[in-house]
Amino acid sequence: MTATDVPVSAEGNPIGFGRMLRKEDARFLRGRGKYVDDVQLKGMLHGAILRSPFAHARIVSIDTSAAEAHPKVKAVVTGAVLETLNLAWMPTLSQDTQSVLVTDKVRFQGQEVAFVVAEDHYSARDALDLIEVEYEQLPAVYDAKKALDADAPAIRDDLDRPDAPHPNHIYDWEAGNKEHTEEVFANAEVVVTQEMLYPRVHPAPMETCGSVADMDPVSGKLTIWTTTQAPHAHRTLYALVAGLPEHKIQVISPDIGGGFGNKVGIYPGYVCSIVGSILTGKPVKWVEDRSENLMSTSFARDYHMTGAIAATRDGKIQGLKVDVLADHGAFNGVAQPTKYPAGFFHIFTGSYDYDAAHCNVKAVYTNKAPGGVAYACSFRVTEAVYLVERMVDCLAQELGMDPAELRMKNLLQPEQFPYTTPTGWEYDSGDYPRALNKAMEIAGYDALRTEQAEMRRAYEAGESQNLMGIGISFFTEGVGAGPKKHMDILGLGMADGCELRIHPTGKGVIRLSVQSQGQGHETTFAQIVAQELGIPPEDIDVVHGDTDNTPFGLGTYGSRSTPVSGAAAAVVSRRVRDKARIIAAAALECSPDDLEWEPGRWFVKGDPDRGQTIQEIAMAAHGSLELPEGVEGHLDATAVYDPPELTYPFGAYICVTDVDAGTGQVKVRRFIAVDDCGPRINPMIVDGQIHGGLADGIGMALMELIAFDSNGTNLGGSFMDYLLPTAMECPSYELGETVTPSPHHPLGVKGVGESATVGSPAAVVNSVLDAIQIRAADMPLTPAVVWRAMQGSPLRNDLAIE
Amino acid sequence: MQVTMTVNGDAVTREIEPRMLLVHFVRDELGLTGTHWGCDTSNCGTCTLWIDGEPVKSCTTLAVMAGGHEVRTVEDLADGANLSPLQQGFMEEHGLQCGFCTPGMMMTAQALLDKQPDPDEATIREAICGNLCRCTGYENIVKAVRWAAEHPAGADSEVSA
Question: What is the C-alpha to C-alpha distance for residues A33 and A24, in angstroms, rounded to an integer?
Fold first, then answer.
């Protein structure tokens, strides 16, 4: 059904797919969204965390007596207190353990040392200053490249790993065919090798992380309002961590002010708020401030990569290999599926046709904050796409070929799908050349190259210091984890439940396991039901973010809501439709086989006037109509969707930048993004997702950085230091689309939430380097970095200049 | 100490600590939770409200500094059940996703529109550059403000060319 065929409801909404204004906006626009910090409970107390000023230091003593004497303080919790409750450490999502409150030594700056519960937030903060901690400072591992040196201090002396090659070594993980790849490289006409850093960045959602824990001392039930993208996974983890019975835990994830992966993991503050409520018998709120968010919660990236690409002299790519040094911080707190410690990084072969590929990822501990799932990266696909798209540009420069021509020559062709990559992924569908052609057409590629040549001529003639760059990135994403046989988090299979109930009057409620952080689920999931059942979307309520009222599932991250829960919503809708057919047949006194479906109605084949609308069927299902044997009344269905495969959205991006060669200042002039995520449920929302990701990419490419000094001090701990793009740095985006449905998704749709974040950074970097004609420089391309690259003395961005 | 101010047209008096920030005053003392707390350093703008018609970042303003002045928050933008043209513009143009920056963003944008009813794109971008948004990439926020400029009386109105 095309958009123009979609019927329109009385309220003017499409009864199915199409542009529809968002249902959730009504409350947000009035300032009536309900975020965690808006939760106010009777008698509620407030928590605050004391954090370590040092990156690596042994705790000699902690004296809490003065804090406890503060008249408004109700409890002071330290690691020693937690040890008595067996809660001082908790499992991470990656088979590691993480300190809740420090017991032995701190391992990163900003680590949680003590938790104060007081009558109000200000008093809790005051009391932090009254806690006396004596630290014995230790040398910090601040440079991942030195983490495995023989004399590097051991960070995780809490672990018993006698077989580890070095105390700071976490794992080596490889994928691809090493022997074949080495052979291809040994015989290749051209090999280009390039080191690059995808620096540590932070998702920095506008709302920081927090929780309100309320342990009912009578019923023993814990209710926790918390900033989570995965409420069910959190509930199970709390049951495992705290030994609380799972049915006595209700996790409520209310309105979430942006997630981007930052709100996947469980943070010590959440656990402390629970402990605080248990100790005081009162609800306890804890909301971190911005510095706490930037310094201690889940960072992203931090991949040091050495890539090599092999090709023929006429530009046929033959192989790609990469060695990665992955900085995981002090605890391995990434949230990758168990079998994939480096996430889906081995999708790094990208969108091109060759059979030789190999990667090795070496992960190390450093004295930095843990994390690594985060920032709209689809499980490390961002790092993978950055690698291959930078390497292709390096090759183009080596061969003296136009980067668009080189890509076009090597892109997978439509008839090659489904395509199995050299590292084992099976891409479902695609028409890559069409997308790149479309992007080049929107950009006016040839005219841009002509303009660029003229600007370079003027620059070289000394007439101007302005240069212009054209950067291309072609990405293939893999989103929608599971299947559960391959993908789990802590043994929980990545499949998601869904329940649909149609009320007697034909209105309905759909309950989801996933949780929106701004993606508009209350609108799009109602549209899926509308598409499948012909019920107006305004008649369908979406319930999510509450474990007592929704079915189990792994939640919203890695762009998995539409590929997984969207499919589940389609499946339950079709089950309701099938049941409605039987009920309609009973009402019409015919065989179900005699009925035909049109949106919103079953009717008798050849006699279209004889039929039953879905609303009439709903009433009949709840009424006195005698139903066939074995058919229960009411009109509802449940499903658990275990995806057979990932979906593989893709896109072609072109970024045009202007670079002031005198200052190194970069201005993004244009950004063209052609995305293919299959059919679009709500094109307005899809475009919005892409816009946000493009801004992320521009921010990471040009501004955002979490660096450390030689003491392990975080240099990006506030928004004065960690620079996010504003409306001034972002251009007006030029979007295009192609539509290649996924053959295995019930609706043909693919995920899109992270596509632009994955695809855009390489386009910006390629553009700037194309302008200044330098092979490599690392993000963020600040004026200083660009200028130094032009002088031939590149900066190492992840360390302080000392 | 005692502080008295007008908030959204109503006189309010509260006994507060002198150090209390205005953002906490409106949220915790008055229950107006549409104004959000995002960064402490005046960078993100999610706490933006008005004092005497000027947008101010309430995370770095003491509540007592608003004593005797008129404060306006996002809760006052709509006229009863009717959204203001700017609020309508945000909805029509999909100018919000998670909604967290939206109240501050609208308070900044409304102040611009009050001074300059027909701003061009560059003017809008400069005006809102003290308000961060992580979801929209700003494109649709700019369009939302333009929508409001083109529909000064809301959905049924348009400026004739």
Answer: 9
CATH number for the segment(s) A36-138+208-256+263-296: 3.90.1170.50
Question: Residue A603: beta bridge partners?
Answer: A596, A611
* Max Cα–Cα distance, chain B, nearest Å: 54
Determine the residue type at A132.
E
Inter-chain CB proximity B41 and A21 less than 8 Å: no
Which helix H or strand E contains A601, and what residues bound it?
strand A601-604
Contact A745, A681 (CB under 8 A): no
Structure token digits, residue A282: 């009162």
Which residue, chain included where needed, has tokens 């590629």? A445
Please report, for residues A38, A93, A345, A494, A761, the alpha-carbon distance to residue A259 in angstroms, rounded to integers and kept in the order given.
17, 17, 21, 19, 19
Structure tokens at A37: 């910090």
B139·A520 Cβ contact <8 A:
no
Tokens at residue A534, please?
């012909």
pLDDT of residue B17: 97
Asked if A239 has any chain B CB less than 8 Å from its own CB, the reply is: no
Residue among A98, A11, A26, A9 nearest A522 (CA): A26
In chain B, which ranges are continuous DSSP H helix? 22-24, 85-92, 102-115, 121-127, 139-150
- CATH superfamily name and code, B85-150: [2Fe-2S]-binding domain (1.10.150.120)
Contact A682, A524 (CB under 8 A): yes
Task: Using alpha carbons, select from A585, A570, A575, A637 the residue that is nearest to residue A616.
Answer: A585
Enumerate the CATH 3.30.365.10 domain ranges in chain A, comma separated: 3-33+495-641, 300-481+645-790
Question: Count of H helices and E strands in chain A?
Answer: 18, 32
Give the per-residue pLDDT at A29.
98
What ipTM score was computed for the predicted complex, to two decimals? 0.97
**3-state DSSP assignment of residue A246:** helix
State the Cα–Cα distance between residues A367 and A355, nearest whole angstrom.
39
Pick the CATH number of B2-76 from 3.90.550.10, 2.30.42.10, 3.10.20.30, 2.120.10.30: 3.10.20.30
The number of CA neighbours under 13 Å toward the Cβ of B71 is 33
In sign, the C-alpha dihedral spanning B56, B58, B59, B60 is positive
What ranges make up the beta strands (E) of A284-355? 284-287, 300-311, 317-327
Q: Tell me: the pLDDT tens digits for B7-50?
A: 999 999 999 999 999 999 999 999 999 999 999 999 999 999 99
> B interface mutation test: which of A20, A21, A25 has the most B CBs within 10 A?
A25
Q: Is A300-481+645-790 assigned to CATH 3.30.365.10?
A: yes
Q: By the CB < 8 Å criterion, does A517 face chain B?
A: yes
| Of A670, A479, A466, the residue nearest A563 (C-alpha) | A479
Between the alpha carbon of residue B126 and those of residues A397, A634, B102, B141, the distances in Å are 37, 56, 17, 12
| Distance, CA of A273 to chain centre | 25
Report the residue of chain B nearest A121, measured CA to CA.
Answer: B24
Domain coordinates in residue numbering, chain B: 2-76, 85-150
**A3-33+495-641: in CATH 3.30.365.10:** yes
Of A356, A347, A350, A354, the closest CA to residue A321 belongs to: A356
pTM of the predicted structure, to 2 decimals = 0.97
Other CB atoms within a 10 A radius of the CB of residue A465 amount to 12
Q: What is the pLDDT of residues A83-121, one digit of tens each?
A: 999 999 999 988 899 999 999 999 999 999 999 999 999
Long-range contacts, stretch B4-8, CB < 8 angstroms, 24+ apart: B4/B67, B4/B68, B5/B66, B5/B67, B5/B68, B5/B69, B5/B70, B5/B71, B6/B69, B6/B70, B6/B71, B7/B32, B7/B70, B7/B71, B7/B72, B7/B73, B8/B32, B8/B71, B8/B72, B8/B73, B8/B75, B8/B76
Nearest CB to A730; choose among B38, B103, B137 = B137
The answer, for A126 touching chain B at a CB cutoff of 8 Å, is: no
Report the pLDDT value the prediction gives residue A4, as an integer from 0 to 100. 57
